Amino acid sequence: MSKVLVAYASRLGGTRGIAEAIGAGLGKRGHEAVVKTVTDVSKVDEFDAVVLGSGVFANHWHKPALEFARRHEAALTARPIWLFSSGPVGNITNPGPLADPKEVAALRERLRPRDHQIFWGALDRAALDRSDLGTISRFVSRRFIPEGDWRDWPAIDAWAEVISNSLPLGAAAAV
Ligand SMILES: Cc1cc2nc3c(=O)[nH]c(=O)nc-3n(C[C@H](O)[C@H](O)[C@H](O)COP(=O)(O)O)c2cc1C
């Protein structure tokens, strides 16, 4: 069994659901997964591996996720890490390959993740009122961002399986 931190940054809740599903996918495959917002994590030393994800606004990862990556860079590069972005929303037929959010190239350089996955996201307009979004983002969200849930749970679980398969299931190596 591996102890895995699934750390996420979510402004409106879409990414939180993905992080929870990844945690559940790891848990049902015999690992111990701890799912937390990036701001609730003080240390990553106790974990064997880390999954780090962020929602994407205006093609950028959320700042707390980037701060987390910077703050814990040494510990993150010392263990297996996977990244995910919770991105596009809407009914787009044949979207083609999805472009990485702006910061992902630098994160790949610095953290050397095993993988970076983009998952379709969700927007619940009711969550806007409880959110910390500023006036402009609220306006953009109401006007231009389609409401709905495009999260692909089978694809998310399949990715959790890939992660699970590359982590040791037995007792941590004694050597
Ligand atoms: C203001 C706003 C801007 C967004 N900009 C983008 C974007 O540039 N690219 C993208 O793929 N998705 C974009 N989205 C969709 C979000 O990434 C998607 O809703 C995601 O699931 C949000 O995650 P969060 O609520 O956990 O932060 C945007 C959503 C909002 C509300």
SSE topology:
Elements (H helix, E strand, L loop, with lengths): L2 E7 L4 H14 L4 E6 L11 E9 L2 E2 L1 H9 L1 H5 L3 E6 L17 H8 L3 E5 L2 E2 L1 H5 L5 H10 L3 E2 L3 H13 L10
Parallel strand pairs: 1-2, 1-3, 3-5, 5-6
Antiparallel strand pairs: 3-4, 7-8
Bound molecules: flavin mononucleotide.
The site of flavin mononucleotide (FMN) has 23 residues, from helix 1, strand 3, strand 7 and helix 6.
Using the coordinates shown, work out and report the CATH topology. Rossmann fold
Strand content: 15-25%
Give the integer mean of the pLDDT values.
94
Report the top-level CATH class: Alpha Beta
Low-confidence region ranges: none
Distance between the termini: 16 Å
Q: Please provide the ordered H/E string of secondary-structure elements.
A: EHEEEHHEHEEHHEH
Bound molecules: flavin mononucleotide
Number of domains: 1
